[in-house]
């Protein structure tokens, strides 16, 4: 495994505008390490080779999350050179944005690109109750997002899903007005298909599509990725470790502290899980021969698919972040890629990536 130097932290006491005290971890001496940067699409910003997906730092997805450790992980990621932070206004129903907003009080905002998804509607009990990407709704959502994050602009703003009741042209057109007003810098998309991508790009330049892409989720390769490349649009790939399934750390008796929605996923259940963990063991053989971890090989594989693809790593602890950063030093040659393809062929996974009811809402799956 490759060494990434530890980050030293100071624990600081922050007093917010309401006079409430907060404890946060911040680098005792902030040093921005060098990381490869690439442009997100033809018209997007320069971003770090890896991005940090922050969803798991809110406790309503992957079980309980440690606030202090989350803040320390955010600080460590930025010090290591990660500039792209991805969140959603519905992650923890605002919790995730407020957490990042707290971190931004001690982080260099001018060095960062913050990507925000919007549109998912939730009830007071946390239930998912629909989707809303109407122009008025998204402008209201952005106003609250800016307040929670404590910033005056969002670098990349994107609908989390296609709203079947609202033409994508109306949604993108409304975000374009926010770009013109200075509240948004760039427009992205998430989990939409090739036709929708083309329609959106005809209204305003699109910098990237956020979509699940990993060794065991290869669907974008059929039509979506070629369309992105034709149009000069980048990809930010989430789920590069398939929500931990191919991290090398998941086991059959995995237990989360608190609710963990992954356990309802088809790939995490019964015989599907047995089959998928066997794929992980085949990948482990390759990783161990290289002296690296399974997660590092899986992340490096995604990065090796093109300089127009930015893997989003979902680390919510510093040790997992350190492991993910090690993937940047894993160079996969032709023989390595052939061995990986033999161990984990396309469409090798058992089970869909989402439950059937959720797949029905994904334009990218149509």
UniProtKB/TrEMBL annotation:
Residues 49-343 form the NADP-dependent oxidoreductase domain. Coiled coil: none annotated. It comes from Sphingomonas sanxanigenens DSM 19645 = NX02. It holds the Pfam family Aldo_ket_red. Transmembrane segments: none annotated. The keyword Oxidoreductase applies. One of its GO terms (molecular function) is oxidoreductase activity. The keyword Translocase does not apply. GO terms for cellular component: cytoplasm. Keywords: Oxidoreductase. This is NADP-dependent oxidoreductase domain-containing protein.
């Amino acid at each position: 495994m490759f060494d990434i130097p530890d980050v030293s932290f100071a624990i600081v006491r922050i007093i917010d505008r309401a006079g409430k005290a907060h404890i946060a971890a911040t680098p005792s001496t902030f040093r921005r390490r060098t990381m490869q940067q690439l442009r997100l699409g033809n018209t997007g910003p320069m971003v770090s080779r890896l991005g940090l997906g922050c969803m798991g730092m809110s406790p309503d997805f992957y079980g309980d999350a440690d606030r202090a450790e989350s803040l320390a992980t955010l600080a460590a990621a930025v010090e290591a050179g990660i500039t792209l932070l991805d969140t959603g206004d519905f992650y923890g129903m605002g919790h995730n944005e407020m957490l990042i907003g707290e971190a931004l009080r001690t982080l260099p905002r001018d060095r960062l690109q913050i990507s925000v998804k919007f549109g998912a509607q939730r009830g007071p009990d946390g239930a998912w109750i629909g989707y809303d990407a109407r122009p008025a709704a998204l402008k209201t959502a952005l106003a609250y997002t800016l307040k929670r994050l404590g910033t005056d602009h969002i670098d990349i703003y994107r609908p989390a899903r296609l709203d079947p009741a609202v033409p994508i042209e109306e949604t993108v057109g409304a975000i374009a007005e926010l770009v013109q007003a200075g509240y948004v810098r760039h427009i992205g998309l998430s989990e939409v298909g090739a036709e929708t991508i083309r329609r959106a790009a005809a209204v305003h330049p699109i910098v990237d599509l956020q979509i699940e892409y990993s060794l065991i989720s290869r669907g974008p390769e059929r039509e979506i990725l070629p369309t992105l490349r034709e149009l000069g649009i980048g990809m930010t790939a989430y789920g590069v470790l398939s929500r931990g399934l191919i991290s090398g750390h998941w086991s059959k008796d995995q237990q989360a502290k608190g609710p963990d929605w992954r356990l309802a996923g088809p790939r995490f259940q019964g015989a599907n899980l047995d089959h998928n963990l066997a794929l992980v063991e085949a990948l482990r053989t390759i990783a161990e021969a290289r002296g690296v971890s399974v997660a590092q090989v899986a992340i490096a594989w995604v990065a090796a698919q093109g300089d127009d693809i930015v893997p989003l790593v979902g680390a919510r602890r510093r040790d997992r972040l350190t492991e993910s950063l090690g993937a940047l030093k894993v160079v996969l040659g032709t023989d390595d890629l052939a061995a990986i393809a033999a161990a984990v062929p396309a469409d090798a996974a058992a089970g869909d990536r989402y439950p059937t009811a959720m797949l029905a809402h994904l334009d990218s799956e149509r």
